[in-house]
Amino acid sequence: xxxxxxxxxxxxxxxxxxxxxxxxxxxxxxxxxxxxxxxxxxxxxxxxxxxxxxxxxxxxxxxxxxxxxxxxxxxxxxxxxxxxxxxxxxxxxxxxxxxxxxxxxxxxxxxxxxxxxxxxxxxxxxxxxxxxxxxxxxxxxx
Length: 142
Fold this sequence. Notes:
With about 140 residues, the protein is α+β, with helices and mostly antiparallel strands. The chain has helices spanning about 25-40, 60-80, and strands at about 5-10, 15-20, 50-55, 80-90, 95-105, 115-120, 125-130, 135-140. The protein has a single domain, classed as Archease, Possible Chaperone, Chain: A, domain 1 (3-Layer(bab) Sandwich). Helix 1 runs parallel beside helix 2 (about 60-80). The longest helix is centred in the middle third of the chain and has 19 residues, at about 60-80. The mean pLDDT is about 95. Pfam families: Archease.
């Protein structure tokens, strides 16, 4: 079993996440897992199909927000649940990733939090010393 790379923090009426990674690639992959864990039990999502996602933004924080917003859009608008997210390339503020997952199946996937949006509120990526790991702060509108 993989070690959890995120933690919840209290935030009035919303859902706060701290997400951790050794580098931005690992951080963004962990962000996908953290988001899905709020929506349904990730272990019940099968990596049956693939989707390619390509995004560009003005900053690492904006790219993280857009990345999570794209995964949320796929879930809310198309009923797509992400089991695995693999960043294939990350250059500057542009990423290309493969999402593996499947369509929502109400028989197997119990929906937890109804997440409306990935917000800009408190959004940041910082390097924690002395560990040297990255921590993102993300607030989800529920």
